[in-house]
């Protein structure tokens, strides 16, 4: 029988470049991976610069110009909590995953809670990728339908199904170094997307004429939730950390990733809000006229982005399932587990049509929990500074308190919007 902690394991337990030992024990000499600093930066940028780059103009529209202050505060806070994750892992070489941090802090219940929160978050983010793909492809080709075994599937559902099958081979990869090349394409795609949006506004007749509102107080909860969703990659950070050849440079990886992504997000938010104002949709690409070259580049680039990010997001879930259900390495069963996981996200994506509300709910309930509250609580417990009265401990408790307020208000707002949409 395995220990209780191993039986409830629901997250990646080993670096992706290290073999899984049958006894599931940790060894100091097997912790370091072989991924270089730059490849880890690509993986980190790819994880952070997700579908939030499309929804952030909508977030700014929801909250108004002054909500940008909140955006930069969230960016700084989540960078700090990312460093807290590294500090927790540096304190104990046996910590090799996010759930390990929860176990070190609060025992088996902490492991279970962290595992559930992070895996649901990553699962819904991956599902959001498929919804995004379906929406944009349906916008480009509204009359396309596919037939599979006599069953005709049309509209966005057909595109979600096809794209999910295209993404499946990337999920079969289990090497972070190889995934870094896919990640590089995702990072490049993000910059191309921003450039094409800028071109559409400056040279294709859309212009930057919308003034926007200074503050929309009613939309602040939605704005904060979507801003938080932009920085929901914390469950992936331990995977990146353990895959690095030189883990002492991980703080520099985080700095590079957060600086680049924050500038990218802010640029996209400002450009989109100036272009479309309050009329900006949940995905800015849905506002673009499909007959312009720049618009087509933006939309097609949007389609490439999730292809490069999907595998990185579901990798911790895949390894969690394999650690739970596979006693030893079995390539056939591993492929089956990965395939079933992808198919399940396809089914959920087909059933959930509200992209902006799903992302808002994920940001408020799961991203705030996994990226803000849990890193602070775990570090307070593992480091022991919760026993001392100091600037850092006060700051951490303050972040936790604010995070709980955002979680409650943001989740309530998102659920209310989903309910109103359903009853229409």
TrEMBL record:
InterPro entries, per database record: AA_transpt_TM
Compartment(s) of residence: Membrane
Sequence intervals crossing the membrane: 65-85, 112-132, 152-171, 178-200, 220-241, 253-277, 297-321, 333-355, 361-382, 394-415
Membrane-related topology note: Multi-pass membrane protein
Residue ranges of domain Amino acid transporter transmembrane in the record: 34-414
Keyword set includes Transmembrane helix: yes
Source species, domain of life: Eukaryota
Keyword terms of this UniProt record: Amino-acid transport, Membrane, Transmembrane, Transmembrane helix, Transport
Predominant localisation class: membrane
Record's keyword annotation contains RNA-binding: no
Entries under PANTHER family matching the protein: AMINO ACID TRANSPORTER, AMINO ACID TRANSPORTER AVT1I-LIKE
UniProt name for this protein: Amino acid transporter transmembrane domain-containing protein
Organism encoding this protein: Rehmannia glutinosa (Chinese foxglove)
Lineage: Eukaryota, Viridiplantae, Streptophyta, Embryophyta, Tracheophyta
């Amino acid at each position: 029988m395995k220990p209780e902690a191993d039986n409830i394991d629901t997250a990646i337990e080993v670096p992706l470049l290290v073999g899984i030992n049958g006894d599931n024990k940790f060894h100091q000499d097997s912790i370091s991976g072989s991924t270089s600093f730059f490849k880890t930066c690509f993986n980190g940028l790819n994880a952070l610069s997700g579908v939030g780059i499309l929804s952030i103009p909508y977030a700014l529209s929801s909250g108004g110009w002054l909500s940008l202050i909140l955006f930069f505060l969230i960016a700084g806070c989540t960078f700090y909590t990312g460093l807290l994750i590294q500090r927790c892992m540096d304190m104990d070489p046996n910590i090799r995953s996010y759930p390990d941090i929860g176990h070190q802090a609060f025992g088996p219940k902490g492991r279970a809670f962290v595992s559930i929160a992070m895996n649901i978050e990553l699962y819904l983010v991956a599902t959001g990728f498929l919804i995004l793909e379906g929406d944009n492809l349906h916008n480009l080709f509204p009359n396309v339908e596919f037939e599979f075994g006599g069953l005709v599937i049309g509209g966005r559902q057909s595109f979600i199904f096809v794209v999910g099958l295209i993404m499946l081979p990337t999920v079969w990869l289990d090497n972070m170094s190889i995934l870094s090349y896919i990640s590089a394409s995702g990072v490049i795609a993000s910059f191309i997307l921003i450039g094409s949006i800028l071109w559409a506004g400056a040279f294709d007749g859309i212009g930057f004429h919308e003034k926007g509102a200074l503050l929309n107080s009613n939309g602040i909860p939605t704005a904060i939730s979507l801003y938080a969703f932009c920085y929901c990659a914390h469950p992936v950070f331990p995977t990146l950390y353990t895959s690095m050849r030189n883990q002492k440079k991980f703080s520099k990886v985080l700095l590079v990733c957060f600086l680049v992504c924050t500038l990218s997000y802010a640029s996209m938010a400002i450009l989109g809000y100036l272009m479309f104002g309050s009329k900006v949709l949940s995905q800015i690409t849905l506002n673009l006229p499909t007959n312009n070259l720049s618009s087509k580049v933006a939309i097609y680039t949007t389609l490439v982005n999730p292809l490069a990010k999907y595998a990185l997001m579901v990798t911790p879930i895949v390894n969690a399932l394999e650690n739970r259900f596979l006693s030893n390495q079995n390539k056939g069963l591993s492929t089956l587990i990965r395939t079933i996981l992808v198919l399940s996200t396809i089914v959920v994506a087909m059933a959930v049509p509200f992209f902006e509300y799903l992302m808002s709910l994920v940001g408020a309930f799961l991203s705030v929990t996994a990226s803000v509250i849990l890193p602070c609580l775990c570090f307070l417990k593992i480091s022991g500074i919760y026993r001392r009265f100091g600037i850092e401990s006060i700051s951490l408790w303050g972040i936790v308190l604010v995070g709980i307020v955002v979680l409650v208000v943001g989740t309530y707002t998102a659920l209310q919007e989903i309910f109103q949409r359903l009853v229409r």
